[in-house]
Every structure is written in C-alpha cells, then in structure tokens.
C-alpha cells in the first residue's frame, strides 16, 4: 500500500479525541515531516550542482505535478522571480488538468501521462532544462510519464515524493524522497507529505540560486526593487554591502537602474557603470568574484 494512503492505528478514533490532543498530534506530524527531509541532503546536494550548471547555460526550471504536489511546485516557481529576479518564462509550472487545476481540482487528470509529454513538448523542452516532478504517492502517471520523457530528451530530472518505492524514483536521475508515512487523515497529502515536499522544494531551489550567484552574504542581490518596500530594502542592502551612506546607495541604484549588484560594484570599487558592468560580466554575475582582487 502507498504509505500516505495507509490508515494508521494510532489515529483510529481521532474524532473522539479532545481538541487539544488532536491539534498537538497534527503539529507533531508537521515536525516529523520536516525531520524526514534531512535524509535527502546527499542527493539534493548533487542535484543542486548539476541544476545550477544547466540553468547557467540558459535552461529553465520546469515543475510537473498533479493536485497538492502540483500546486506546491507552482508556489515555488512563482516565488523565484520576486526573490531572485529570475525571468518568469524560465520558471514553468505544468499541472495535470491544465492551468485551471491550480485552483479547482480536475478529477482523473493525473492519470493522463500523455498530457504531460504533450505539455513538455509544447513548452519546448531542451536538454538544458531541469524538470522537477512531484508526486506524494510516487506513482502519479502524469508525473511518471513526464519524467521519463524529460530524461529521454536529456533534461536533468529530479523527483520529489513520499513513497520510497515510487516509480518516479526510477524515472528520475534524483529521487528526493521524504518517507513521512501515514497521515493523520489517511490520503490527505496536504498534511505531512505536503509539508515535506514544500521544505524540499524551498531548499532545492534556494540552494541552486545561491550556487549561481544570486545570493551574496545572505542577501537577495538579484531582487528587483519593484515597489516602495523593495526599494527601501534595496537601498539598505547596497548601503550595507558597499559600506556607503543611504544617500550614496540610492544614487548608485538609480544610476544602475535598480541593479543591486551593479550598484554595489560601482560603490565598492569606485567604478563607473560601464566598468562595473564589465567587471560583473567577467565574473559571470557573481558578486563575490567581481569584488575580489
């Protein structure tokens, strides 16, 4: 039986439990879910380095899933542009049942493996892409077939799930599996399984962008200051990283047209915009390299 579908004896009769006991049991389950993700660290580390290489060559992150797992992938994809200044067209979410299934369940869509292949082809899948397939059960046909097709096309494939023996682990180069076991509500993978998948996705994508140079001294240096709050954050970031006054930081940001990295190089090395751009380009956009020497 699929681990997340199993009804655990421990939770028999939870409808009769005192509310405090019920809530505490659910919270304990969430803690256990996070703990279960630690087992994926070795494989995740390898996947991060290979994914960073692909994306640095122009590849895209493509998330593939159904139901709760698909929605978790969509959340991760949606957060990359505002956090890292990543181009939205390079973070793609493919959902069984189409875009409408992100908000309204489409029953039976997850069984259509051919639809995943078609969606990947429509997206123009290339060997530089990184395809992340998510399925708590480890056996959703939409994800299994999508990963198989992506791997055959030469893309880097990463599976995320909660069933150690799931077929997605066979089809992907990396299987990041958090064995969260039975849910308090059997089959409700938005609980422990979903939490574990969210943790894995957040850590995976963040580590990839750190490796690619989108983070410097723990700061989001590729963030675009698109509103007042982010503009203030950008000024503070430049002032701190370049050891400059807020006034100089704001002026440098304006000259750099909102590029935090460029403003930091300009102020730190007393360079004009063109020279700072050349310095950053030679460092492949990695601020720690551009500032060295």
Automatic annotation (TrEMBL):
Gene Ontology MF annotations: carbohydrate derivative binding; carbon-oxygen lyase activity; ether hydrolase activity
One Pfam family here: GKRP_SIS_N
Active site location: 79, 110
All copies of domain SIS, residue ranges: 51-214
HAMAP family: MurQ
Note: A lyase-type mechanism (elimination/hydration) is suggested for the cleavage of the lactyl ether bond of MurNAc 6-phosphate, with the formation of an alpha,beta-unsaturated aldehyde intermediate with (E)-stereochemistry, followed by the syn addition of water to give product.
Record protein name field: N-acetylmuramic acid 6-phosphate etherase
Gene: murQ
